Amino acid sequence: MWTVAIVALLVVTLPSINVVTIQDSSQVGCRLLESSGTVILTQPGDFIIGGVFSIHTSLKTTELSFTHIPESLQCSGRELRFARAMMFTIEEINNSTELLPGIKLGYQIYDSCSSVSVATRVTFQLINGLESTFSLSAPCSNSATVSAIVAESGSTPSIAMVPTVSPSFPPVPQVSHFATCACLSNKQQYPTFSRTVPSDHFQATALAQLVKRFGWTWIGAVHSDSDYGNSGMAAFLAAAKTEGICIEYSEAFYRTNPLSRIQRVAEVIQRSTARVVVAFVSTGDMIVLLEDLLELSLPPLQWVGSESWVTDPAMTQFHMFLGAVGIGIRRAVIPGLRTFLLDLSPAQASASPILREFWESAFRCRLQLQNAYTDTSQLRITNMVYKAVYAVAHGLHSLVCAEQNGSTLHCDRGMKPNPLQVLEHIRKVNFTLNGNRVSFDANGDPVATYELVNWQLSENGKTRKALSLDEYADMLHVCVYKSLQVPKSVCSESCPPGTRKAVQRGKPVCCYDCVPCAEDEISNKTDSLDCVRCPSDAWPNPQGDACIPKPIEFLSFSEYLGIILAASSVVGACLAIAIAAVFYLHKDTPIVRANNSELSFLLLFSLTLCFLCSLTFIGRPSQWSCMLRHTVFGVTFVLCISCVLGKTIVVLMAFRATLPGSNVMKWFGPPQQRLSVLAFTFVQVLICVLWLTLSPPFPNKNMKYYKDKIILECDVGSAVGFWAVLGYIGLLSLMCFVLAFLARKLPDNFNEAKFITFSMLIFCAVWITFIPAYVSSPGKFTVAVEIFAIISSSCGLVMCIFVPKCFIILFKPEKNTKKHMMGKVPSKAL
């Protein structure tokens, strides 16, 4: 047995839009009454409530022709249940002691036969009495025979009835139980209309958000080519666009269209890539479409339906209906209704043609009656009828009943209320009925409350039933049953993090390509429209979905290059110290004394500092290390070159002094030598002080050479200061080289000038090649080139000036004599 249960509860309070709808009903077999359009169920009372229902209808409408007899209308068990529910509600109110006490409500219920013209005619009959005709020359009666009308199940007949009701004097209030057209909220066009069922505008919005919640961004759409389908689908398409849902196709059809038109719609569904189809169609149209689809080989489809067909048990005959989800009017329980429906004796049935017809068709010698009439498990629209009658009764109660003597409630049963007053009081009702709040807004609409339904196989796997979920959420966060396998329907798969969506030319926005982000950009969420550039100190990870800090690179003591350079620096310093120790131990020997021991020790000390200053270039640059490395380097090298320059001048002066009458040595004795070294060094100190004062070196994160890493280096600050320090060293080196070159013809045994010449040649060669290498080397290799130049030039001085002398001191002591030193004289004077 079919049952529909709650999937999720939606409460919508959105503005309405103009929509015109038509509602078809499910059917049971029955023959057409010849009395269609006349009153079929009636009961006298103090106040009469009219009712119009499409009790007779046709599932398949055929065009009239001269060769075929039109198909007879059939009795709708569901619509008959609506009419009987109205009778039950009025009987329940008449038995109530709280609502309209002492007042008996009556009813006049008509069958519109699903015809707009019949609905219009019976409306005139309700207003002016039982006369079904009227004359344009004869005015309408000044007072209506009914206080209000509960009608109609469809929007189109309801729309046709309102102009009939409103021009009457006075106009009669109309409360509909199933007319969902949003256009009926326009009180300028339909001032007397109210309803207990939500507007289609809310349903369309709810359907769009339901589709969005399940992640279906690429869908197909079909709708009835009628007021209901066209207007409802227009509202859905507008809501879908707002939600970012793309529509692959939108096809309209009607059940009376030629077969080729229906087949074309079916083929569009078959060929499409969308796996979700939203159907805003009536039940009759949906049955026609599904029958045609059964003949085609279809991929698995997920149907999303409007309230017109998604809760109709007639759909269960189609296997493709399994798994359908949609919006349904909230179901309810009406105590006592089923008993009332079944409590229908042959005597009662024979008193009414419509009941007699139903009785003859329904029982057919069966003891159990199972049909749409007796099915009270899905009291959705029936509950709307129940609410509508109670709304009219509460409106009449507030109008004709009043308290007397402060406590006694008295109702004036003889009062002839003005229908405008009835309308005003109906609009103001606010009461609770079986746990549901009943009220109307300024447009005569109730608060929109829906249920989400999902049809699934029952536990036995044979019958189908609605899947019952007890998870509730608001419309924006619909809970999904954990066992429900949600199909996928997208034009393009989601773009993973690390990529962005690029819309395909000429296609909807839901069809796109996934383009990887640029090398310095990321996207950290699925379906990103744009990639985000990483900060300057960060770089995308390999997946491109996160920015990670760029690795900071500098010449450290832990890497091989840093270890080799640091070891070379220490070895060079140790060599200088060792030579100084040898010289100190042999300070009284001729070769040491002949080489100006004071300047030699000062030179060895400065060379030791030159070797060690290279260590300041290794390690993480800081503010102090950057200032220290360049200034120490500049000062120590000037001190070193100043000593070499002093030794060169001493050599020249010494041999000048051997000439007759020369006293040049008194002008460049030890005090002058020390002063010259101090003066040359002071100039470099002054340059460094100015440099550090005006624009000192500082640690800088260089991001120019590499995009994926940061070079942490010492920026020289002032380029002028940096090149002034190097330029001054170069100037002194050039002077020293020139003077040493002039002393190249000194005696072979006294070869100090020759060695100085070679050492300065190496020194200048190293630093000349250093400049282009320094400028072109990237990152930490710039520092390595500078350290290499410092160590190489220092080693050149040590090897050329001191190693030969140490060799003589340690391995050729016989040459370390004054006689040997004075064995030769220059062949000619300089």
Our count of helices gives 21
Cα Rg:
52 Å
Task: Give me the secondary-structure category.
Answer: alpha/beta
Note the gap between the termini.
129 Å
Q: Helicity range of the residues?
A: 40-55%
The pLDDT mean sits at 80
Contiguous low-pLDDT stretches (5 residues minimum) are 1-36, 132-138, 467-483, 825-830
Instruction: Count all strands and give the number.
Output: 29
Label the overall shape.
rod-shaped
For the sheet with most strands, the description reads: 8 strands, mixed
Keywords: Cell membrane, G-protein coupled receptor, Glycoprotein, Membrane, Receptor, Signal, Transducer, Transmembrane, Transmembrane helix
Transmembrane segments: 560-585, 597-619, 631-655, 675-694, 722-743, 755-775, 787-811
Domain G-protein coupled receptors family 3 profile: 561-825
GO molecular function: G protein-coupled receptor activity
Structural notes for this entry:
- Residues 561-825 form the G-protein coupled receptors family 3 profile domain.
- One of its GO terms (cellular component) is plasma membrane.
- The protein has 830 residues and is α/β, with parallel strands linked by helices.
- Strands 1, 10, 11, 12, 13, 14, 19 and 20 form an eight-stranded mixed beta sheet that branches. It has a six-stranded mixed beta sheet with strand order 2-6-3-7-8-9, with helices on both faces.
- The longest helix is centred in the last third of the chain and has 34 residues, at 623-656.
- The protein starts with 8 loop residues before the first strand and ends in a 9-residue tail after the last helix.
